[in-house]
Specification:
Blueprint (H helix, E strand, L loop, with lengths): L26 E4 L5 E6 L11 H20 L7 H11 L2 H11 L8 H29 L17 H11 L1 H6 L3 H13 L10 H6 L1 H8 L3 H7 L2 H21 L23 H23 L14 H17 L2 H4 L6 H18 L2 H11 L11 H11 L1
Helix pairs in contact: 1-2, 1-3, 1-13, 1-15, 2-11, 3-9, 4-5, 4-13, 7-9, 7-12, 11-12, 13-15
Length: about 400
Amino acid sequence: MTNSLRPHGYQRAPLPPAREAEPPPPTPHRDRAGHQTGPPTAPAKPEPKQRDAFFDNAKYLAIVLVAMGHAWEPLTDGSRTAEALYMTVYAFHMPAFILISGYFSRSFDMRPHRLRRLITGIAVPYLIFEIAYTFFKRWADDDPTYDFSLLDPWYLTWFLIALFVWRMTTPIWKIIRWPIPVSLAIATLASVSPDIGDDLDLQRVLQFLPFFVIGLHMKAEHFQRIRTPRTRLVALPVFAGAVAFAYWAGPRMNSAWFYRRDSVQELAAPPWTGPVMTLAMFGCSMVLVACFFAWVPRRRMWFTALGAGTLYGYLLHGFLAKGSRFWGWYDDYAWLHKPLGEIAVTLVAATVVTLLCTPPVQRLFRFAIEPKMEWAFRKDPGEQARGRSSAA
């Protein structure tokens, strides 16, 4: 009801200011008879909120699949099995990662401390690794003319710039009425828009956008509904069917569809395939993501703590993944293209990315991936005032 329907001059009475909950009084020590035997003890402080093991497990398993997919890529030309596994994994591993990123971006707003975290946790690592990858390519690929470009993400850094853009648009997706259909429409239009270009890898930013928006609007109970015995049972034949379909489609389908970095015109496909492939791949990805979440353990595992370091594994394993191509490892060692070699490559990729997620590696590279940079920001007057009032 609007104010125009109320009598002239009517104003709603302001609510009284909220009172902070007073801490409970100290609890005195008493004996069985009820007599106080010692000075009162202050109530214990509440324990810090525990990380959810399910999401750390999901992030770790997703980053392992990312590393495996990069290791399988050079094998896809000579092995139909590797190609089928590659296409299946690429259908859901980044959508799962992006959906989780959206879920943990639900609280993002434009408050200063969140903007500082956005800069230090995403923008600065993007700049550092864009420079690092540039020098690495010049050296490892013997390409001294390769130029640094702030607007053209190289290899893995596209995800950082995409996450930056997605988070900056989070307030929009919270206020519009149909966020998921709108994001799907944007992804569809992007797939038939070749003029978008390569700046900031906007094709990927827009085509992967629906998964981030879905994550923004998911709640804990949605993940609970996925993690049921029935869903886990159904997930097995679904994954088996996906691998079988990928085995059939491998020689007939361009795997570049899964990268979502090109328009249909750049893929030499008819324009009408843009909406069809966008919606079809979105549906397939969501089904496989649900099956993946159904099998993610919900209890603490030996790898649960590594889930906090997945960005380290993601950014650092790119040097080895690209270096293996630059240095011709897959060409020099023919046995890697045999079944045992493919298994060895898979195990090495999983082991390397696991090691890169460990706490020692996090401590060593925290200056580049999670810099504090308090010197670069002004002090927030509101935070200073709250700090003074709490100290008083």
